[in-house]
Amino acid sequence: MTLLPRAVRRLALLLPLALLTPSATAQQALPAGAPESLQTGDEVPWIYRGSDVPRDKEWLFGEMDNGLRYAVRKNGVPPRQVSIRIRMDAGSLHERDDERGFAHLMEHLSFRESKYLGPAMAIPTWQRLGATFGSDTNAETTPTQTVYKLDLPNATPQALEESFKLLSGMIREPVLNERNLAAEVPIVLAEKRERGGAAERVVEGTRKTLFAGQPLAERMPIGTEETLTGATAQAVQAFHDRWYRPENTVIVAAGDIDPVRLAQLVEQWFGDWQGKGPHVEAPNFGDPVPPPGATGENPVGETAVLVEPDLPRSLTYAIMRPWRKVDDTIEYNEGLLLDSLSQALINRRLEARARAGGSYLYAQVQQDDVSRSTDATFVTVAPLSEDWEAALTDVRAVIADALATPPSQEEIAREMAEFDVVFASMVEQRAVMAGSKLADDIVTAVDIRETVAAPETVLSVFRGMKEKFTPEAVLEHTRALFSGDVMRSVYVTPATGEADAAALKTALEAEVAPDPSARLDSSPISFEDLPPIGEPGQVVDESSLGLLGIERIELDNGVTAILWPNDAEPGRVAVRVRFGAGFRGFDEDDAVYRALGEAALVQSGVGELGQEELDRISTGRKMAFNFEVEDAAFTFSAQTRNADLADQLYLFAAKLAMPRWDGNPVLRAKAAARLAYESYSTSPSAVLNRDLEYYLRDRDPRYATPDLAMLEGTTPEKFREVWEPLLEQGPIEVAIFGEFDRAAALEALRNTFGALPERTPIPAEIAARTPDFPAPSTDTVVLHHRGDANQAAAVIAWPTGGGVERLPESRQLEILANLFSNRLIDAMRERAGASYAPQVMNTWPVDLQEGGRLTAIAQLRPQDVPAFFAAADEIAADLAANPPTEDELARVTEPLRQLINRASTGNTFWMYQLEGSTRDPRRVQLVRSLLNDYTVTTPQAMQQLAQRHLAARPGFRLAVIPQGQELVRAAPGSEAEVAGR
To answer: Which Pfam families match (predicted)?
Structure first.
């Protein structure tokens, strides 16, 4: 759990995303011979036209004669990487009725074959350049845009020029023929199929209701099966010619290179591009309109009740207004800040009402500009029972109070303090903002037709308007947020007959009395008023860990710590506390409390601090309280800052020294688990989320998702009985990495973790527990889902190992998993279109001697399950029988090398690599070989690994198929049956 309220955590969504980019204080000097299209001197860059927002002068902007616009900047995070984004103003809202899905299909076809890339050569080509397909190389299509993304690691001049060349061919001249359509349409249909099911039906039904009368109601980016299967090369070419034009294109590049060189490459490869045929204006996206004859404010329009037996109840209503392009001025952004604070106030009150035992599990208010189609305020409610009207009334009553009465200045000050710490942190961390994030922010700004600003500008605007945050101003903006042209609503329920559209409309039209009970005490709480953890401890050992100047600290009560003060990430301090037994600590009878603990342990409080007090004490602070149950340890973690480090450590230590056992969070977690459980049957992926770990751990109850019967018997009293001894067991290791004062951190450790009593040892029988793997068998475990009849999933897994001493082997297994994954993608996606995104994963528990595995997984049609198992068996057998080629190996090791090089520039990477090292020095030594272990190997070594792990026994097989169907078996003599022999 994060101590910041939900509204502030989502501030980047509530504010214009374009405001979140770093800046410099002066325009960069341009060398002679700079591209002519760069907008320099007094020329207003294209993105700032009509705005008085101060320019972020680290960005250079250009606009070419053909209409193409670009933005480039120098950025060294991570080193040697360049992030490129190509945004096309072409999304699903640009499609005609017979073109539904074409914008997304064009994205696929651009990767399939283009001027400089042969058929299906995009993935291997980018891999050879060190880019991981799917993360470094990707694309996305929304209703308003298609964005092609490349994060190019080790961007040498040659690799960078080659990348711009390849991208230009993909955008300007994709090969759009019937052969490529025949190859890509099945892949798109596989993607559509995997997205389908109850959740997707709700998305579609909600769109049709909330955006009724607008193109957005009918324009899902994935398209329809009819239009996709009916696509012709001529029709797709016409779509490309109409929208893939330079005037519809924005190119953004940020990376560890001279930005002028980036501008030169943009102009070199796109400067002579000319559109085909006349320019076509974007279609009208329409406005939300009230029902005929409606009068007054917020008339209720379309409502719908969607019955999905396997989904929990949820209700959304939206107050909708027309979207209009704005002049992105400082005054406009001041208004957005007032809007954001108004929402934060209401969301905090809604959360307090839920915590106090309200009729809903959660509720949330959020204003959003949706696809340039509407400016809407959305209210989402999750009723706890079939009495949805009571939940809706409770939520509307809290909102009615915010509309009737101004908030107190103290409430406003509390939210302002939260905003201030967020914006100040952005300034502190501006030097470590990733180039990929900066590039994405420009794309978002273009999409919503707004500008970009430096973090210093955002903070300055916010602090400069503090006198404008008055109760009257907040009330005015709150009322504006809940005023619109029409109100629409959707209720999702598992029960037929529970509600209908007319009842929903009546409930929304009913008057509600304001409920002031959710208004919160805003008086501050000070850490100085809290009791000490105990008598401060003493440091008994300070020594070098033997790597990068990192220190090992030991306190006289046995607590150990890893300290690494450094300025690699200004303003950030990462804290991670490991203790206890993790999954090992639970017995079969109390395993249900493991799942409840992940949701309720922290929320149940610390000492005299309940949930509300924890929120108040962290106001204006950068603090968090994340909790996780791992295989062999429990962890607390947080991203904080030097000024808050001591208090962050106090909260963590106090949870161990003086835990509070408030029952309400346990009951709320129980209710949430009950509501969610039935939804696990909605699709193959949901069933796997529920059951896969359980079956891969040989049906160990500790890894089971609690069912309704298990949940029914849980109580807050038993929760405490299970968790209280677990918090007292096992050694503690504290890791602190980042920009902090070493002496102050040591003193804080003495006063917090050093003041804890000595720990109870983990019982030997618990410490010895390791998860089992299913016994060898050629049978397939078959599970069923209640979703669409054309959806299935298949899993095959082989056991590997675990432990520290075999870590080098686990890293080599990562290479083998990537080799396997590339081949499985080729077999299931490229050749057959049977699965959109099959993957192979390597799991290796460092803290346990067993439990590792290689797992291949795919979503597909039920009839393709035998083909998946046959393909996986064939790949496993071939890897064991024949070494891979050097080129195939290079396509895996080079992206891994670049991934590690980038990750190792951050503190979190080293923190995770070194956890546990204060008691096991082997971990330090093994960090030294990490890069080699992941990237240096031979084809023969891969073959030997495959022989040891893939050929030694049959893989464990699991399939998830539709309820009422039987697993299809490979027919004798069929391709799948022969391949699987």
So the answer is: Peptidase_M16, Peptidase_M16_C
